[in-house]
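Exercise 7b. Backbone tokens:
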């Protein structure tokens, strides 16, 4: 009797064209990576718009409009909004959709408390290792701030960031710098407080005091001045919001 060959072939017989092994999995991974990249792009943009006040509390966030604006799918927008909800920046209500969350005074206070401690500690570290060129840069920034038009809030903020980042870099602690930048990003609605009469002049004087302490390498005084400077800005902002925001905007 003639013997039959094997009824089941080896796995090789079921392979696709050369080079195709795992191709499906790679394509899936690439699509997932591309999707995540689009979500991150939308997240960065929406966070910036909310923190800067471009999108106001209670403003509706319509998925179809956002998808068109960012040139992405509604699924990407849905994922981004879900993430922003976990961060407390967005509210999502059944049958109503998403909207920018009300301003939380409690969250603002907590963020400023954390930022003041982090930046104060960084300033204390920087006092010992601040280079002469760093000190000259800080003095130059303060001089430019003093000469600014009181209404030029945008330029003030640029110089303010340069001032604090110069100290942050001089502290020599990269991880600390990353934490500072994270919480500095959360100092929501700073522009409203700076628009108050006389506030920029107060900040300039406080910056001058910090520079003098750093020049004397007085780490403890520099740390305390920066902590007080940042918490003072936060307290001023919260009072300003309480006085100027309509009912229902604040929590």
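Sequence design result:
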């Amino acid at each position: 009797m003639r013997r039959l060959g094997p009824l089941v072939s080896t796995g090789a017989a079921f392979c696709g064209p050369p080079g195709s092994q795992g191709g499906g999995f790679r394509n899936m991974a690439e699509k997932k990576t591309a999707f995540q990249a689009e979500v991150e792009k939308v997240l960065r943009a929406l966070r910036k718009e909310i923190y800067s006040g471009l999108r106001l509390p209670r403003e509706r966030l319509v998925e179809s409009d956002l998808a068109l604006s960012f040139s992405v799918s509604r699924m990407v927008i849905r994922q981004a909004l879900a993430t922003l909800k976990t961060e407390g920046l967005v509210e999502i209500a059944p049958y109503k959709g998403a909207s920018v969350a009300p301003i939380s005074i409690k969250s603002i206070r907590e963020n400023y408390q954390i930022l003041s401690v982090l930046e104060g500690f960084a300033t204390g570290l920087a006092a010992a290792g601040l280079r002469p060129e760093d000190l000259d840069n800080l003095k130059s920034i303060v001089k430019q701030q003093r000469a600014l038009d009181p209404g030029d809030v945008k330029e003030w903020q640029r110089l303010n960031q340069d001032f604090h980042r110069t100290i942050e870099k001089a502290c020599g602690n990269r991880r600390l710098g990353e934490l500072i930048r994270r919480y500095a990003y959360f100092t929501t609605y700073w522009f409203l407080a700076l628009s108050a009469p006389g506030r920029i002049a107060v900040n300039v004087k406080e910056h001058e005091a910090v520079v003098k302490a750093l020049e004397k390498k007085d780490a403890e005084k520099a740390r305390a001045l920066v902590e007080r400077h940042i918490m003072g800005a936060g307290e001023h902002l919260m009072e300003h919001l309480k006085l100027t925001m309509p009912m229902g905007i604040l929590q």
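Instructor comment: The first strand starts at residue 60 and ends at 61. Residues 60 and 99 are 4 Å apart (CA to CA).
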